[in-house]
C-alpha cells in the first residue's frame, strides 16, 4: 500500500514540477509526465531484478567508467594530435561502451564470484578454493552423504543447477525405476545441503550449447578448476582424458575394504553356486565376493574356509578360497 502511495505521488508531482519549471506551459506538463512514467518504469524493472545482479551491475558500471577514464588519461599523455582529437570527439561513446561492458561482465560472472573465498588470508601466495562438483550418479548413490558426515571430505561442494534439473526430470519420469531414483536423489540432495560439515553451493551457470550432462560437468570443472565426485566409470575415464581430477566413490570403497591375505581363515555363509562345477559363492559385508572351491555341497551353511588367492578386478577385489579339511557337509 505504501509503495502505491509513493508511485501516485511521483505521477502527480511530475507534471506539477514540470509545469512550474518550464514556463508554466503544456510542454512542461508533458515533460513532467514523461519523466514520471520513466521513473515508474525503471522502478518496475528493478523489482524483477535480483539484488545481487543490481549490486554486481552497479559495480561493473563503476569499474567500466574507471577503465574509460584511465584510457582517456593515458591517451592524453601521448603527443599524437589525431588520437587526442578522436578521443575527445568520442569520449562519451567510449565511456558508454566501457560502462556497458563492465555491466555485462559483472552480471554474467557474479555466480562464479560467489564461489570465491570470502576470507582475506594474510599470505603472499594465492589460495585457490577446493571445489568438488557432485554429479547425478554420486547423489543418487547416497554414499557421498556418509563420506561428508564422517568429515572425510573438505572444501566446498558445488551442485550445478542442470544436475538438479536432471534429478527433477527423473522424478517426473513415466518409468517407475527412474522415478524412484529421481526422488531418492532429490531427498539425498536436501540432506547434503543441510549437512553441517561441508558448505554446499548451488551453481546456476548452464551450457546450452552442450547437450549431454557429462559434457556440461566436464566443462564446468574445467572452468572452475574443480574436482568431480561420481560413481560413473565412463565419466571417470573421459575426465582423465581432459585432465580433470575425479573422486570416484566406488574406487574409494574398494580401497578401504578390509585386506584379505592368502592363508587367512574366515567363517562365511555360502549363498549360491559358482560358474564352475562344485564352486560355491559367498559375500562379505563390504560386497567382496569369495569363490569357494568344492563349496557347492555346503550352500546354505556356514563353513570355515582358507583364503588361497586374491584377484583385483575393475569392479573390486575377488577372493578364492578352499574348505578347511575338518569341515563336513
Largest sheet: 6 strands, mixed
* Mean pLDDT score: 77
How many whole angstroms does the radius of gyration measure? 33 Å
User: Helix share of residues?
Assistant: 40-55%
What is the CATH third-level topology name of the largest domain?
Answer: Rossmann fold
Number of helices, counting only DSSP H or I runs of 4 residues or more = 12
CATH class of the largest domain: Alpha Beta
- Structural class call reads alpha/beta
- The stretches of 5 or more residues where confidence is low (pLDDT under 50) are 1-7, 117-127
Strand content: 15-25%
CATH superfamily of the largest domain: 5'-nuclease
**Strand order, largest beta sheet:** 6-10-11-9-8-7
End-to-end separation = 86 Å
From N to C, what is the helix and strand string? Answer: HHHHHEHHEHHEHEHEHEEEEEE
User: What is the correct CATH architecture of the largest domain?
Assistant: 3-Layer(aba) Sandwich
Counting copies of identical and different chains, the oligomeric state is single chain
Using the alpha-carbon principal axes, give the shape.
elongated
